[in-house]
């Protein structure tokens, strides 16, 4: 039901890389297959391709995009997924959405099949980079205005984009959006009272992605998610 114009690079792996791939089988090919399986349930034809947005964060960033019902002349709906997700998140919604208007779902920069550039370590700068990536994508797609729907982290990004580019957003829809308060100043007094091994552990874990434990669990990751989130 869909077209896929994605390209993949095959790289040589070290022995450690091979062991990690065996324990945690993740690759562009595996990701593509998983997405294709999810989208196979769609009844509406779709097309998938990479949109080159230039050097927003990396040297040549690309946003993986799928589109449905692009022939419609109605206001397009653009979907931004949440943390750790991708366009497949919307597989149960896309047919209904596309029955009324054009629909575009993207893998947010740094997620899914989109480019994985090295983002800044400053939270405000990362927010700016992500907002700019959405705007560059919109320019490349030549969408004067859009209905913007964001889920979870995508809701935070959609809200941040609407604040920066209100003239580009016809309607803003936030589904269970994140809200991030300012980071409180570090209380070094409390940290200094911790034993040395606890301070070392905190220092090691602080920069890690919130989903690192699931990836580290390898083949047991799915069971970990099912236990933590039975819903």
Gist of the model:
The chain has 231 residues and is of the alpha/beta class. It is built from 9 helices and 7 strands, in the order E-H-H-E-E-E-H-E-H-E-H-E-H-H-H-H. It is globular and about 65 Å long.
- How many DSSP H or I helices? 9
**What's the count of strands?**
7
Share of helix among residues? 25-40%
- Structurally, the number of domains stands at 2
Q: What portion of the residues fall into strands of 2 or more residues?
A: 15-25%
CATH second-level architecture of the largest domain: 3-Layer(aba) Sandwich
Name the average pLDDT.
85
Order of helices and strands: EHHEEEHEHEHEHHHH
Description:
This protein is α/β, with parallel strands linked by helices. Helix content is 37%, strand content 18%. The chain has 2 domains: 28-181, Rossmann fold; 195-230. A 7-stranded mixed sheet has the order 1-2-3-5-4-6-7. Helix 4 crosses helix 5. The protein starts with a strand and ends with a helix.
Please supply descriptive tags for the structure shown above.
231 residues, alpha/beta, 2 domains, 7-stranded mixed beta sheet, 18% strand
Task: Describe the SSE topology.
Layout: E1 2-4, H1 15-23, H2 28-39, E2 46-54, E3 61-68, E4 77-80, H3 94-98, E5 103-106, H4 123-141, E6 146-151, H5 153-164, E7 169-175, H6 188-192, H7 196-205, H8 212-216, H9 221-228
Parallel strand pairs: 1-2, 4-5, 4-6, 6-7
Antiparallel strand pairs: 2-3, 3-5
Helix pairs in contact: 4-5
């Amino acid at each position: 039901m869909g077209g896929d114009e994605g390209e993949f690079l095959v790289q040589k792996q070290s022995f450690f890389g091979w062991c990690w791939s065996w324990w945690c089988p993740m690759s562009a090919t595996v990701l593509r297959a998983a997405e294709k399986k999810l989208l196979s349930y769609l009844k509406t034809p779709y097309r998938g391709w990479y949109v080159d947005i230039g050097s927003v964060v990396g040297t040549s960033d690309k946003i993986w995009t799928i589109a449905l019902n692009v022939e419609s002349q109605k206001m397009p709906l653009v979907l931004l997924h949440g943390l750790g997700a991708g366009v497949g998140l919307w597989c149960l919604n896309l047919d209904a959405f596309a029955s009324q208007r054009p629909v575009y779902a993207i893998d947010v920069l740094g997620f899914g099949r989109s480019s994985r550039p090295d983002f800044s370590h400053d939270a405000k700068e990362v927010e700016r980079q992500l907002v700019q990536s959405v705007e560059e994508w919109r320019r490349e797609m030549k969408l004067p205005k859009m209905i913007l729907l964001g889920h979870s982290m995508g809701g935070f990004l959609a809200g941040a984009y609407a604040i920066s580019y209100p003239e580009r957003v016809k309607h803003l829809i936030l589904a269970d959006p994140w809200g991030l308060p300012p980071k409180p100043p570090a209380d070094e007094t409390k940290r200094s009272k911790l034993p040395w091994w606890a301070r070392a552990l905190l220092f090691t874990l602080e920069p890690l992605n919130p989903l690192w434990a699931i990836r580290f669990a390898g083949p047991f990751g799915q069971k970990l998610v099912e236990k933590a989130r039975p819903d």
